[in-house]
Amino acid sequence: MGSAFNVFLEAAFIENLVLAYFLGMCSYLAVSKSVKTAIGLGAAVIFVLGITMPINWLLNKFLLEPGTNIFGGMLGQEMDLTFLRFILFIAIIASMVQLVEMIIEKYSPSLYISLGIFLPLITVNCAILGGSLFMVSRDYNLVESVAFGLGGGFGWFLAIVAIAAIREKMLYSDVPPALRGLGMAFILTGLMGIAFMSLMGIDPAALANGGK
Amino acid sequence: MGLIDFVKKLEPDKKKSPKLHTVYDGFFTFLYAPNSVTKEGVHIRDGMDLKRTMFMVVIALQLCYLFGTYNIGHQHFAALYPDLGLFSGFVPKLIYGLVQLLPIFVVANLVGLGIEFLYAAKKGHPIEEGFLVSGALIPLIMPPDVPLWMLAMSVAFAVIIGKEAFGGTGMNIFNIALLSRVFIFFAYPGEISGDAVWVSGITEIEKSLFTDYSWMHTMFNPLLEWMGTYSFVEGRPIVDSFTGATPLGLAAKGGWDAVTEVYSTTAMWWGTIPGSIGETSKPLILAGAALLVFIGIGSWRIMLSMFVGAMLTGMALNAWGATPFMEVPWLYQFYMGSFFFAMAFMATDPVTATATTKGKWIYGFFIGSVGMIIRVLNPAYPEGWMLAILFMNTFAPLIDHFVLESNISKRLKRTTSE
After folding, report:
1. pTM of the model
2. What is the ipTM metric for this complex?
3. Which chain A positions have a beta carbon within 8 Å of B377's beta carbon?
4. Which one of A40, B66, B238, B385 is at 20 to 30 Å from A166 when CA atoms are compared?
């Protein structure tokens, strides 16, 4: 459990998906005009990341990876299906996003309308596919991958809500005309990235083992 | 004829030379409270405008400036002559400090105010005096030996990206002075890391240290020789007992014992140790902070909650105690580094801090907590306050948003229930 908690902290604060890897920028920049919609989209991302990660982990292990997939036992010969990884992950993500969309439409139509096209576009949010691919490349186990999904989602949520609050505050600022809108959002993201560098370099796993 | 009549005579014509008029207007309102007041509606008429407010902060910084100037020189000569008392060699120390500090101050203000003037003239606004405080703060948080071109780059970055892009004075989200410091820190990490001491005027030649004076220092030599004091002699070797680690660098390796071997607690408290120019002397900073609180510019809520946040985090780290640095008693954490300077002058910046009362408590507490975590747990940075304040600058509007929302919903409930 300890390692899962470390993975959560690392994904949420130390290696924030938006502010350290700059993943999931499109919806991050487009939906960050008001805190309320940002909270909605952020929660949707947490949900999708948290649910797709374990599913993708299971599929990756039991369908794709040679040596552990079920085809090995059935055919008596190892099969490497990892080339299907992208398409399979995206299919899972798309179906989960469909689920979220249906839930939000049913329970909060106003949020559904204000999120607009960006709700189905979570499917192609790089943060979510990126999360699944990080999970594979870093050899997380099932619990760790759930923690990574929730932590990464929480970090994304935090970043979009923070920038939304700043952009709401900046509504009355006299920004030079050339920078209004997205230009300022990019500068803000960069400065926030500098601020988040404050936690980069902390190694929770090493600290848990007594600083070594 | 008073001085004001003379100054008014100098006023350039606004239509003929708008740029000159902008500059004139900037200096005029700096010297005098403007005469034009709103005639209609209900307004409070008070001479305490933005310029006066900012000037108070500059006054609160003066003790740090005086001591910082002297300390640059003191540290330099203390590295040469290890048994030197604090007040012996007063004049050369002062001259050395002034020669080192003045160019830093001039460059920082020239670049910052220059950009400010250009933007004001271009926008057709009067000059926004926002750089007054930043220009006074930036020299104090720089290492005494900072190369002037780096300083100019960082100030330009902070003013253009951090302020003018956001719409000028009062609109910035991130603290300008800290942005310039963080720019130097990340852009030129080889020069400025913060775990080796900043004693000014020393170069390394084949692994041993020698003094290194500029022409500006040696210019004073005839005067000093005439007075019969130490003079600036090129290439004098530094004594062997000179160590090159800051208290924080020592604490990260060997805990509190390693720190007290080199620095005494009184020296750390009074600030007669190497460091950034203005942040070493705790009592003088606290005096400045008291002035700010007394006038009502600095928020005591932020200062207090920041202290409590750092204290509680320090206690929690003591309880954890996995590394020698974590075992440093929480009280001694305050002796090291620049906590008090960050608390008094950086965190309380009314523009970038939270605006709501409840928000101030939360904001300060998290700065204290995050700063201590960065200092102790993050091996990448020796000190945490600069980054902790920028980190919480990011979240200040969010904290305000939620405090306001909760207030609104509370009041809504009150009205609907009756």
Report:
1. 0.88
2. 0.89
3. 202, 207
4. B385
